[in-house]
Amino acid sequence: MDKKLLDMIVCPATKLPLELLDGERLEQMNAAIAAGRVSNLGEQQVTGAMAEALIRRDGHVVYPILDGIPVLLEEESIDWNQVAG
User: Fold this and answer.
1) Which residues of 45-55 are buried (b: 16+ CB within 10 A; e: fewer)?
2) Residue 1 — very low, low, confident or very high, per pLDDT cuts 50/70/90?
């Protein structure tokens, strides 16, 4: 993901900064998705593994990146507690 773009985008709901989800947390996310434990805030089960994602700086919400494009729609975001809990 382009560093300049990353510096400009924020969470649409809270306006908190976003950062790339690191490799370890991305693996956790994909394991939870594979186990069928992840739904987005639009209440749709997430079924595909993520190659990249953004996480809100407070660590609570994840936004997927699809084909290099951040999907910053609140209903597509994922509550990290589903993964960590």
Assistant:
1) ebeeebeebbb
2) low
CB count in 10 Å sphere of residue 30: 18
Alpha carbons 35 and 85: distance in angstroms, whole number:
13
**Domain extent for 60:** 3-84
The tens digit of pLDDT for each residue in 31-47 reads: 999 999 999 999 999 99
Is 38 in contact with 82 (CB distance < 8 Å)?
Answer: yes
- One-letter amino acid at 19 equals E
Both structure tokens of 74? 């609140």
| Number of domains observed in the structure of the chain | 1
